[in-house]
Structures are given as C-alpha cells and as structure tokens.
Amino acid sequence: MTTVERHFLDRKGRNPHATEEFSWLLSGITLATKIIAAYVQRAGLLEIMGATGRINVQGEEVQKLDEFANQTLVRCLGYRGNIGILVSEEDEEPHQIQEAETGKYIVLFDPLDGSSNINANVSIGTIFSILQRSPESDGRDVMTHILQPGCNQVAAGYVVYGSSTVLAYTAGDGVHMFTLDPSIGAYILAQENIRMPEQGRIYSVNEAYCQTFPEGIQKYLEWVKAQGNYSSRYIGSLVADFHRTLIRGGVFLYPGTKKAPQGKLRLLYEANPLAFVAEQAGGVATDGRQRILDKQPQAMHERTALIIGSKDEVAQLTGANGGNREGNQNLRSVSALLLKSGRG
Ligand code: FDP
Is 199 near ligand 1, meaning CB less than 6 Å away? Predict the structure, then answer.
C-alpha cells in the first residue's frame, strides 16, 4: 500500500521538492481533508448543514461546513513548521504564520468548493495550491509572495468528497490519484501518471447563462449541439466537474457572464491549481485569450474566465493549434469580445 507521503518521497532524485520537509507539509493537507471528509459524511447527523448567516469576502453565503473546513485547514497547516503564509478563499486577509527564514512555503486553498451543493448531497471538494516565497521579493511585502503566476506552483491538487474520497495531486512530474480507505484512515495510491484523454465528447457549462456569454462561446455551444455526438454534464461543483473531465475527457467552461464579467472562478484557489493538474495530465487551461498558468495575478481574490479540459476539445473551442475553421472563428469571436469589453 502506498500512501501520498510515501509516494511523494519515493520521487526523491526525480523531483527537487520531494523532501521530508515537503512531505510533512503534504501530510497537513491529507490530515485536514480526512477530517473534513469524515464531517461531510456525517453532516446531517452533526447538525452542521445550512448557512452560518455570514457573508464571506466573495459576497457569498457561508455554510457551516465551509467554516469548519476552513478552520480545519488553517489549524492543521498552521502547525507545519515550513509554511509561512496561508491564503484561504474564505478569508479576506492572508494568515502570516512564520518569517521567511523558516516558513518558505505558501499554501492557498478553497476549503470547500461547490458548497452551495452541500445540502443536496452532491460531490464537493477541497482545492490547494503550493508556492514558494518569491525569491525576487525582499521578504517584507506579503502580497509579492502571494501574487505569483500559476506557473510558479510547486504542487497543486484537490480532494473530491464523493461516492468515495479521492485525492489527486501534481508536484510537476505527473498527476497521481489516491483513494481514502476509511477503514484505515489513509489515502492509498489508486493510479499513477494519469493522462487526460485528448478528446472527450462532453461539454460542461452552466448553460442557463448562455445569453450573456461572449458571442464566440455562444457559437461554440450551438456548434457542439449541432454535432449530435456530444453529451452535456454539469454538476455545479468545479472540483467534481473537473475530476470527471480529467478521467473521461471533455471541456469545462465558465466564461465571463453579465453577472460576473471577469468570470466567477478564483484564479489563485481554483483556476491555477486545476490548470497545473490539467497540464500535467496532458490537458489545457486558458481564459480564452491566455494560458491560465501565465496570468499575473493582480489581487488575492481575483476571478477569471476558465476553459479547461482535453487538448482537442479546448482547441476546438479556442481554435488553438491552427484548429478547424469553426474553431478559429470561435477564437476570434471570444478574443474580440473579451478585448472589446476590456477584459483581454
Ligand atoms: P459554489 O458557488 O457552489 O461554491 O466557485 C464556486 C462554484 O460553486 C464552483 O464550484 C462551481 O463550478 C460554480 O461555482 C457554480 O456556479 P454557478 O452556480 O454559477 O453555475
């Protein structure tokens, strides 16, 4: 049986970050997510369903489980000696844990993604991203360490609390998946070096907003339906929709809408870590104009449009790789509309 930490340490020599120190950090994430998984499973019994009555920094209603998941991650990671800064989607400000000399890692996380689905027993998850303090910074301005492009991530991954609890992570050398065995309380290796299928005839989007999507996206959605061989799947929990896309292929998209012109999803806690996982599995992630991992974040809670999935399906939508005629038209329309609205 290979656990996450053991699997990671076995990569010593192949991955510069595969150290005992980093494995200790990862064990903070596995511990926290095991506690969260246990609570998610018993949420109805523990009377921790429902809203707290508080509105978070994102303007969203905070669920009791959101708060619990956030506190669990902060507590479990706060004691890991090598973590300097913790950044949560739920909190307005970063948690500064340690000085630069010791706390060289920064962990950013969405403690409970898809939380509006909690009360309906739909899969939800935790997403994490790990950075190192920026070497260019003088160490005083905390934001220069946090606002790094996604291509600087040292590791990233997610946990889906679904029919089973599954953890997938990358540290820049492939994507590896583990299943939580509740009888022994450990994540056990299920599959190494996962590859996302290059094609997958599944599109995943909240089509209710279609009328307010950029014209290029609307055209793509018309095109996809006209093919007759695509299926639509939308769970409404990014982490679960992404996990299906990783395993079965296809494309997930959440473009800008009238309500959320910049897109709804968060660059640092959602798009960046999933883009890192997608690329490491052979997939692609873009905002319609630019590779997600090249985006220079301007603010901690910045939002972005996201198109992520199988290489061929994203190319079909964006017209990348000299794609087909419809694809190229889609790209031009998406880019032109993004530029016109000042979002490019
Ligand atoms: P939620 O609001 O339930 O937390 O970013 C959060 C997120 O869920 C994603 O997990 C999900 O993909 C998306 O928002 C769903 O948004 P819509 O309800 O607008 O489709």
Answer: no
